[in-house]
Prior knowledge:
With about 300 residues, the protein is mainly α.
Amino acid sequence: MIRENSIKLSTSYAVASKVRDYSQLMKFNLTIMVVFSSAVGYLLVPGIEFNLVKVLTLFAGGLLVSGSANTINQLLEKETDKLMARTAVRPLPSGRMSETEATILAIVTGVSGLVILGLGFNLLCAGLSLISLVLYGFVYTPWKKWNSLAVLVGAVPGAMPLLIGWAGGANAIGEGGWALFAIQFLWQFPHFWAIAWIGHKDYTRAGFKLLPAGGEPNKLIALQAVLYTLLLIPAGLFPYYLHISGPTSAIVILLVTLFFLYRAVNLYRKADVPAARKLMFGSYIYLMIMQFALLFDKIG
């Protein structure tokens, strides 16, 4: 009996450990945010009503495709991940998982996710998801070692979740899809530069070139973050002008953008890691409030 219990505990631990490794490889926490954005984009399409089956299908397909992209990212960065304290404990650099297993996972999740999106929604939705996967996994990931324009390249797949969701509901992109894309595209820059500022030493050690203006944290980078945040003010009003959402959401988005701008200006004033960390958290607050405001004030 004792031996049986010991075997059961050992098996349970092994399964839990494997699930945890897969979750780390697919960056589950980040992927949930990505898929939530896709669901918001889908539900903002005029005439689309909440359908639990459709939303869960979008979640499933999005989780698999995004997880595949993140797995490809870690496969290509296995050696550089060993150089950073934050990433050295991941399944691949720590040796807990083989490259073959991770490659199989990337292929299975990527293909199955695209099939789910294609059959559950439309080919446009699946096609945009494929473009996002390729840009993130095979363009942005290696580009990070070349120059800081990688952030510009990475901002495209980073901004696509809302567009993918919109395409899933409308089977077209249109003005509404591009408006949502524009907001999240501009948001990427202050958000990512704040992260790169915080992890600058680790990123430099790994050979990543993620900061513009000489590659060192400085006020010029902070000023650029301020400028991109300023551009979010008119961009945040696009959904209102296009009659996607009402005036209440426009006001809420304006207020949260001003909060985000305050955090960016604070980084320019102080130019230190604590201010960058506040800007990073401010970016998450902005994204969540913006999306919920649009969703709850949807027109049509």
